[in-house]
Design brief:
Keywords: Disulfide bond, Redox-active center
Helix content: 40-55%
CATH topology: Glutaredoxin
Strand order of the largest sheet: 2-1-3-4
Pfam families: Thioredoxin_3 (PF13192)
Strand content: 15-25%
Protein name: Small redox-active disulfide protein 2
Distance between the termini: 8 Å
InterPro entries: Thioredoxin-like_fold, Thioredoxin-like_sf, THIRX-like_proc
Largest sheet: 4 strands, mixed
């Protein structure tokens, strides 16, 4: 699984990254986290508001800092859909 944090490197982007790392640690899910700060790459995802969370090339959240529980719920949905296997 590859998780991307899209944003400018702002405080909210860093907080989303930290919350994602915490969620992975708590759930035992193994994933690579990549910070994407390049504006052209962020725009390629159709994201106009940051931070954004992308899981396996699917944009799952835009414009808000998700809490660890919210991230865990999204990850669980990804596994149920079979997209993160």
């Amino acid at each position: 699984m590859i998780i991307k944090i899209l944003g400018s490197g702002c405080k909210n982007c860093e907080t989303l990254k930290e919350n994602t790392e915490k969620t992975l640690k708590e759930t035992g899910i193994v994933a690579e986290i990549i910070k994407v700060n390049d504006l052209k790459e962020v725009m390629a995802y159709g994201v106009m508001s940051t931070p954004a969370l992308v899981i396996d090339e699917k944009v799952v959240s835009v414009g808000k800092v998700l809490k660890p529980k919210e991230i865990a719920k999204i990850l669980a949905q990804q596994f149920q859909e079979g997209e993160a296997l």
